[in-house]
Amino acid sequence: MCGIAGILLASNAADPKSLDQIGQMMMALRHRGPDGEGLWTDREAGIALGHRRLAIVDLSETGQQPMLSTSGRYAITFNGEIYNFRDLRLELEGVGHHFRGTSDTEVMLCAIESWGLEAALQRFAGMFAFALWDLKTRTLHLARDRLGKKPLYIASARHALVFASELKAISRFSGYSPEIDVDAATAMLSKGWVPDQSCIWRGVFKLPPGSVLTLTAATVAEGRGAASLSQGASRWWSLAEVAKNGREHQIAGSDDDLTNELDDLLRLAVRERMIADVPLGGFLSGGVDSSTVAALMQAQSPNPVRTFTIAFAESGFDEAPYAAEVARHLGTDHTELHLSAAAARDVIPELPTVWDEPFADESQIPTLLVARLARQHVTVALSGDGGDECFAGYGRHFMADRLKRYQGLPASARRTVAAGAGMLSRAARHDFIGNLPLPSHVRHALRSDRLTRFAWLLAAKDEDELHRRLTGSSAENLTRHETPASIVSAPRLDGLLSRLLYDDMSGYLAGDILVKLDRASMANSLEARCPLLDHRAVEFAWRLPAAMKVRNGRGKWILRNVLRRYLPQRLIDRPKQGFDVPIAAWLRGPLRSWATDILSDVRNQGEGLLDSTKVDACWRDHVAGQDRSRDLWSVLMFQAWCNEAKRQASASNSSRELDLAGV
């Protein structure tokens, strides 16, 4: 795991000294690779590659990058891991190839030389973003892994194209002038994160997952913008095709047969991700996903594996007791960190610099802190991320299954049921249910907004409208701009559940979950690996019948079935909680002063992006007891990011000015 950056000058560039800025770009990525720096430049060709190293496999000098292939034709700077590199190496050695060291990077170069770039990519099992320079043809290839686990930003600058693992490196290049993209900012304020298809800065784009972009100096000289360059990327792996083919060719088999196959796949994925020349552990929340990963780690380790979790003081948010029980049963070497509101407050000033696009998933706080805890003991940590998106773990997935039985009813009948549910919900909220002998969980469900939401969903006229209602943002638009429509085109799949899963995997997973994990871990120089997102497991999941995912009103049925082989039922069957934090209470209490200061900055912006009148009303509602924390956290994180961006711009020695017009 590392940080990479590079510069490719246009064929008509006047000053090759621009390549010298690669050193400054790499300084901005030191946290991603504290174990060393490498630079490689070909001034005549107008190319510079940089690499910051977090040494994981082959800690010797033979693992250093940028690395040249044996023939000298290719130079590579690579961020990530190829987990099946040992198998690929054996295959290459079998046909006469020899290796100097033991790194996966050397195997990658040999595979590319032997099989060609796209054929090699198809064989790689891993997470990666890399730049490959062909010295023979003077061609640059930029590639990203199948699901976008590793980031790669690309910017069209003056007389150059620059790329890096993070935006903060691109901002060090003097030929690029940052200017905010209002559509991306508006989308962030609605979702809490910038979609992977967008970037907070104009003129910058993220290389799409599963794609390759091929460029020459002549291409750069054309002066094409970010949108045009992004469209030039070619797909070597397509989630849309995998989803469509999987639903059209579903696996037939008994519950036991399919569970056995998934167990074997995940064992392999975990085993490959336990290959490291440095200490290794895992995140453990006590939920199904992280418990499955921890169980498969311990089942394949002769020694207790290290596991780490976050504990909260507030009741209803603390999963630490569940994690501790799982750890005791599995026999892991377990460590807890107790998170207080004071600890959260202390870390908040770091958030805009860790996520150098504005980011407002409040679980970023415990994710950052559990990564910091783990890094005190290990250099690699396995995570349970991806289980919800692959195997249907979110409430909307269960709701889709429950509503399916009503879709066959006539519209008039659905409206009648919806009206009845709405009346019952209103009666419960006004306490008209009185002392009826109802179980406490039923009484709680009636008094919550779940029944109201169910009635609203049930009234949808068809599956398309139901899909829109399930996926629409519940956030209030607190800006002066309309939220941009999604630009992601989805394949036509075999039902509502498949459509929801595709939305989550192509959108939420790429734009939120993987961004959160990458930035939080790499800010602490920790490599995080996600075995549940192994591409073989993802492709298998898309071929599973829906009943293997959602059954009897519960999600992740097959994953639970795997976990039952390692844990007793009592440690598996509990309500899904997620990595939530008590942000609503904190904003009314220990974070109130900080929030008030940030919101005053919103008001001082005048006619900016945010509508200060709506924001103030939202804040008053929250302080009065209504939970508006999701809306407010997006506003607070966005404004904090703007403040930090302005601070960095004013502190820079560059004469460039940061363009935050309209914000």
TrEMBL record:
CDD domains: Asn_synthase_B_C (cd01991), AsnB (cd00712)
Coiled coil: none
Any one annotated GO CC term: cytosol
Record pathway: Amino-acid biosynthesis; L-asparagine biosynthesis; L-asparagine from L-aspartate (L-Gln route): step 1/1
Protein name as catalogued: asparagine synthase (glutamine-hydrolyzing)
Source organism of this protein record: Mesorhizobium australicum (strain HAMBI 3006 / LMG 24608 / WSM2073)
Gene Ontology biological process terms from the UniProt entry: asparagine biosynthetic process
Keywords noted in UniProt: Amino-acid biosynthesis, Asparagine biosynthesis, ATP-binding, Glutamine amidotransferase, Nucleotide-binding
EC number(s) from the headed UniProt entry: 6.3.5.4
Pfam families: Asn_synthase, GATase_6
Annotated binding of ATP, by residue: I310, S383, G384
Residue ranges of domain Glutamine amidotransferase type-2 in the record: 2-218
NCBIfam families to which the protein is assigned, alphabetical: asn_synth_AEB (TIGR01536)
Family: Belongs to the asparagine synthetase family.
Top-rank EC class of the record's enzyme: ligase
Catalytic activity: L-aspartate + L-glutamine + ATP + H2O = L-asparagine + L-glutamate + AMP + diphosphate + H(+)
Residues that, per the record, bind L-glutamine: D104
Domain of life the protein comes from: Bacteria
Important for beta-aspartyl-AMP intermediate formation, annotated site positions: D385
Stored SUPFAM superfamilies: Adenine nucleotide alpha hydrolases-like, N-terminal nucleophile aminohydrolases (Ntn hydrolases)
GO molecular function: asparagine synthase (glutamine-hydrolyzing) activity; ATP binding
Gene3D superfamilies: Glutamine Phosphoribosylpyrophosphate, subunit 1, domain 1, HUPs
Catalytic site: C2 (for gatase activity)
